[in-house]
Write a structure and sequence with these properties.
Order of helices and strands of chain B: HHHHHEEEEHHEEEEHHHHH
Order of helices and strands of chain A: HHHHHHHHHHHHHHHHHH
GO cellular component, one term (chain B): ATP-binding cassette (ABC) transporter complex
Subcellular location (chain B): Cell inner membrane; Cell membrane
Number of strands of chain B: 8
Structural class of chain B: alpha+beta
Oligomer: heterodimer
CATH topology of the largest domain in chain A: MetI-like fold
Distance between the termini of chain A: 59 Å
CATH class of one domain in chain B: Mainly Alpha
Shape of chain A: globular
Distance between the termini of chain B: 28 Å
CATH superfamily of the largest domain in chain A: MetI-like
CATH architecture of one domain in chain B: Orthogonal Bundle
CATH architecture of the largest domain in chain A: Orthogonal Bundle
Helix content of chain B: 55-70%
Membrane topology (chain B): Multi-pass membrane protein
Keywords (chain B): Amino-acid transport, Cell membrane, Membrane, Transmembrane, Transmembrane helix, Transport
GO molecular function (chain B): transmembrane transporter activity
Shape of chain B: globular
Largest sheet of chain A: none
Number of helices of chain A: 18
Radius of gyration of chain A: 31 Å
Strand content of chain A: under 5%
Helix content of chain A: 55-70%
CATH superfamily of one domain in chain B: MetI-like
Strand order of the largest sheet of chain B: 1-2-3-8
CATH topology of one domain in chain B: MetI-like fold
Structural class of chain A: mainly alpha
Largest sheet of chain B: 4 strands, antiparallel
Chain lengths: 448, 404
């Protein structure tokens, strides 16, 4: 544009050389007010809903704050402090807090529980965080080292073995001879079978032998006397029992669940039938009946002289129950793997177990991590049921603390339930967030 | 994975029979069956010896013995002199009662919360979110305890009324409300009511057909309401008003032990039932809400836009376009939630609501016949599970999208 200054007034009216500034949007459509108009009061029904919502919040939140903070009792030595209280009785929680965590686990031995928690945490973190290295080492640590360490730390170790079937005096010697016999028989049998089948007989036999070696080492370590005081399981309680049951349950249910899932998708009819019956049976009955069964019927099933303690019986029930659910989760993963993967593996000439362990399961199990975490959350919540068969998990120990006359007060039960709810909620909520995070991470958009 | 043997003919001469997948399959299966048979035989054998040693009774004879304990909630005639079999049946009916009402309530709450979670209204969707995330991450048993021990124990005592709204009272003995009393001659009224409901459904079907054929609409709702109210009312008046209402009778004078609500007046919900029902339905509703939300989100947004373009209002869009399509996604997981609720109702044993497990536990303690009782439990729950899944599979098939 060429400016002719001769006729300035007309040219200016005719062409603008700069954009006019945007007028500010009306104040009613921006900022907090605009947001409220759009989201809360856009129409009459919406406004009514908003007011209703605010009323619900008003009904719930202020009483909760009053109970936990305003009217709460903060200090005191026994029930007299809370006898007149209209709010939470925090001194009671303070007095009982460590019992909630450890149950009646003896005071001087509690470091062992702490150490177990710590060992568990450092093993878990590398497995959970996808970016961390040492996945393989972490897995070996969690599957071999940690269970033995936890067992020895929590019970005290120094197990004695009596042996089972050989006609000789009971004792360690009988057990170890039997162990050697079984190991030799299994290894020999498999060696012969693989040689007949034309496989790599020597390699297979060696790896099985190595497995038995590790097992022997574990048995041996468990029998060493580390000088730890024995703590019997009836003394365990609180969060410790909750975690022991949930973690053991999930750890035991994974291998069984994988086997069942493979069985359900196998093309051997009897294997499939048995898997389906097993899975549907456990999924069809409530956990509480399973727990009753394991606590009342299991002793009847066992040969004379063998007794399981209460916790172990509950663990067996929980593991069987959880494995059925785990099997369905794993089956979901197996079905999500494209047929091409199976065909590719077969085209490479892999055998069934090679195909499964090298190609299919690694992909399927990664896919179902969210499902596994969700099963774990369910199991974690369901561990509360063991209080019905007389074990003191977190909820059980809180429930039993109400009988303590020292702290009997009108708000004691409310306070106790609040603490229990808070602890369970923190655990479950963080796990569910993790599961959602993994789901997003794994959702690569390649699903068909 | 079926592997077709596609190797050329001469290869089979070289391969050993031991590499034949069929032979191997048969071998492993026989091995499995043998191992399982051994395990089962071992269990049966051990059980038999253990039972003999402990002098424990076996067999189903105990079902005919007198139970000797009372049950606080019975839908059929039951007293201390009834037998164990009847006691267990009463427990079974109580399980069905709490599960049935629980399923209904959980569905209603779940749908409301699930839709609220998707609401454009920020306050409502936040409240729904907080409700879901809080209740679903707290163990059900804890919630049952909370309702039973913390809430329903904190209400007024047995000798106080604890009125919530006029006519409805909640005290420590339970919730009391007016109840209809069906006197002699009330059958025609009940029949009229059922008839009116049936006719309404017939009209609804006819009207839908007519609308599909001609586009004309018929005021079904008003006709149905009219029918259901008027028809029984006419019969009721004609037969001389045989139905009366029994109000809960409260006495606050006289001997101390006689004060409070009088037995047999009004309608009572025992606190065990109330707390179990509340906990079960509020807990399960959170899962149903998430299922509903996922189902609605699974319906493509284009469906909403198209129905707006046709001039449907948001409410009608949700009801006529979105929900019917979302139902296909919702039904399978919904079924498993219903089953979960039914199975979770067995937690009743913790607060002594007399369901199947709770009554069974009492019977077990009295007779010591663990195997029979646990077998009954498992059989009943398994049959409920299998029947429900069979029904839901049938329903699902009916609702499924018919594709080319």
């Amino acid at each position: 544009m060429t400016m002719t200054h001769a006729d300035e007034s007309t040219s200016e009216a005719y062409v603008r050389d700069r954009m006019v500034e945007d007028a500010a949007p009306p104040s009613s459509s921006v900022g907090a007010i605009g947001w409220m108009r759009a989201n809360l009061f856009s129409s009459i029904p919406n406004t009514i809903l908003t007011l209703l919502g605010i009323y619900i919040v008003y009904l719930v939140v202020p009483p909760l704050i009053e109970f936990t903070l305003v009217n709460a009792v903060w200090e005191g030595e026994d029930r007299t402090a809370c006898a007149q209280a209209h709010g939470a009785c925090w001194p009671y929680v303070e007095a009982y807090f460590w019992t909630f965590i450890y149950g009646r686990y003896p005071d001087p031995e509690r470091w062992r529980v702490n150490l177990t928690f710590f060992l568990f945490a450092i093993g878990l973190v590398p497995l959970l965080v996808p970016q961390m290295p040492f996945k393989r080492e972490g897995l070996i640590y969690m599957l071999a080292f940690f269970p033995v360490a936890a067992l020895i730390l929590l019970t005290g170790g120094d197990f004695t073995y009596a042996g089972f079937f050989l006609p000789m005096p009971e004792g360690e010697l009988r057990f170890w001879i039997e162990f050697l016999l079984v190991a030799a028989a299994v290894t020999g049998g498999i060696y012969l079978l693989t040689r007949e089948a034309g496989g790599n007989a020597k390699g297979t036999a060696l790896s099985i032998l190595a497995g038995f070696g590790v097992l022997a080492a574990l048995f041996f370590v468990a029998s060493i006397d580390f000088g730890l005081v024995e703590v019997e399981t009836p003394l365990w309680g609180g969060l410790l029992v909750t975690l022991v049951i949930a973690v053991t349950g999930i750890a035991a249910s994974l291998p069984i669940g994988i086997a069942l899932a493979l069985g359900r998708r196998s093309n051997l009819p009897i294997v499939r039938l048995i898997s389906v019956i097993f899975i549907e049976f456990w999924r069809g009955v409530p956990l509480i009946t399973v727990l009753f069964m394991s606590s009342v019927m299991l002793p009847l099933f066992l040969p004379e002289g063998i007794t399981f303690d209460k916790l172990l019986r509950a663990l067996i029930g929980v593991a069987l129950f959880a494995s059925a659910y785990m099997a369905e989760v794993v089956r979901g993963g197996l079905q999500a793997i494209g047929k091409g993967q199976y065909e590719g593996a077969m085209a490479l000439g892999l055998r069934y177990w090679q195909m499964m362990s090298k190609i299919i399961l690694p992909q399927a199990l990664t896919l179902v991590i969210p499902g596994i975490v969700n099963t774990f959350i369910g199991l974690f919540k369901d561990t509360t049921l063991v209080l019905i068969i007389g074990l003191f998990d977190l909820l059980g120990i809180i429930q039993s603390s109400y009988t303590d006359p020292n702290w009997a007060s009108p708000t004691q039960s409310h306070t106790g339930y609040l603490v229990a709810a808070l602890i369970f909620w923190v655990f479950c909520f963080s796990m569910s967030r993790y599961s959602i995070y993994m789901e997003r991470r794994l959702d690569t958009g390649h699903k068909r | 994975m079926a592997v077709e043997d596609a190797r050329p003919e001469r290869a089979t001469d070289r391969a050993s029979w031991i590499n034949d997948p069929k032979v191997r399959g048969a071998f492993y299966q026989i091995l499995l069956v043998l191992a399982l048979a051994w395990l089962i035989w071992e269990i049966i054998d051990n059980t038999r010896t253990n039972l003999e040693q402990r002098n424990m009774a076996t067999g189903w004879g105990f079902l005919d013995e007198t139970a000797g304990f009372g049950i606080i909630l019975n839908l059929i005639q039951y007293s201390e002199i009834s037998n164990y079999g009847r006691a267990l049946f009463v427990g079974f009916l109580n399980t069905l009662l709490v599960a049935g009402i629980g399923v209904f309530l959980a569905t209603v709450i779940g749908f409301i919360v699930g839709i609220a979670r998707l609401s454009k209204n920020w306050v409502i969707s936040r409240i729904a979110y907080v409700y879901i995330e809080v209740l679903r991450n707290i163990p059900l048993l804890l919630q049952i305890f909370f309702w039973y021990f913390a809430v329903l124990r904190a209400v007024p005592g047995k000798r106080e009324m604890g009125t919530i709204v006029p006519g409805v009272h909640l005290n420590i003995a339970g919730l009391r409300a007016p109840a209809p009393v069906f006197e002699e001659g009330s059958t025609p009224t009940v029949i009229a009511l059922i008839l009116a409901i049936v006719i309404s459904f017939v009209i609804k079907g006819w009207s839908a057909k007519r609308q599909a054929a001609t586009g004309q609409r018929f005021p079904v709702l008003w006709t149905a309401i009219g029918l259901i109210v008027v028809l029984p009312l006419i019969v009721f008046l004609a037969t001389g008003m045989p139905i009366s209402i029994s109000y809960p009778e409260f006495r606050d004078t006289g001997p101390m032990l006689m004060r409070g609500f009088q037995e047999g007046t009004g309608f009572v919900l025992i606190p065990e039932f109330l707390s179990l029902l509340l906990a079960l339905s509020l807990y399960t509703a959170t899962f149903i809400a998430e299922i509903v939300r996922a189902g609605i989100l699974a319906v493509s947004h284009g469906q909403t836009e198209a129905s707006y373009a046709l001039g449907l209002r948001p409410g009608s869009t949700l009801r006529l376009v979105i929900i019917p399509q979302a139902m296909r996604v919702i039904i399978p997981p919904l079924t498993s939630q219903y089953l979960n609720l039914t199975k979770n109702s067995s937690l009743a044993v913790a607060i002594a609501y007399p369901d199947l497990v709770s009554v069974g536990g009492t019977v077990l303690n009295q007779t010591g016949q663990a195997i029979e009782i646990i077998a009954i439990w498992m059989l009943v729950y398994l049959s409920i599970s299998l029947l429900t899944s069979a029904f839901m599979n049938w329903y699902n098939k009916r609702m499924a999208l018919v594709e080319r």
